[in-house]
Amino acid sequence: xxxxxxxxxxxxxxxxxxxxxxxxxxxxxxxxxxxxxxxxxxxxxxxxxxxxxxxxxxxxxxxxxxxxxxxxxxxxxxxxxxxxxxxxxxxxxxxxxxxxxxxxxxxxxxxxxxxxxxxxxxxxxxxxxxxxxxxxxxxxxxxxxxxxxxxxxxxxxxxxxxxxxxxxxxxxxxxxxxxxxxxxxxxxxxxxxxxxxxxxxxxxxxxx
Length: 208
Hints:
By secondary structure, the chain is of the alpha+beta class. Helix content is 49%, strand content 8%.
């Protein structure tokens, strides 16, 4: 049985919920109240080494990090979501974009809009005075421009005819761009890609 340690407002958790829905995999959801610091326990650390959500248990196996979870699920339950050999490099590159460029731009920018600056600073592990919102905005515009350029020439990020886990990895926060005060109309290829994902069988929207 799969158990997902989850929070309804987390974009990283949403990636996993979405993928589980798309592959038709049943799971138990356990709410982790990160705003109340309920993830900061020794018990949860045994499941998630850095006490972060999402985390997944698959029988006796515990997996943490949304991208590791997506890849675990694809390898074990939905190999059609893994790119063929010729596109593997591109798939992993865009998963890396999600884990690095998006995680350091759109993800924290959205956080500053949905919680207080003090709470955002806590989750980002910085002093509130060091929150660089203009820098987040510049980095967000840069990564969205690059994604838009890629998607202008390809339906899916890995470059093939069908979506891969890379699309789900990057979609998690791209789906929430409006919550970061981003006008997605400025990125028409991303807007079209988001529509294609919403049309996939089993799709579930973000949010509580």
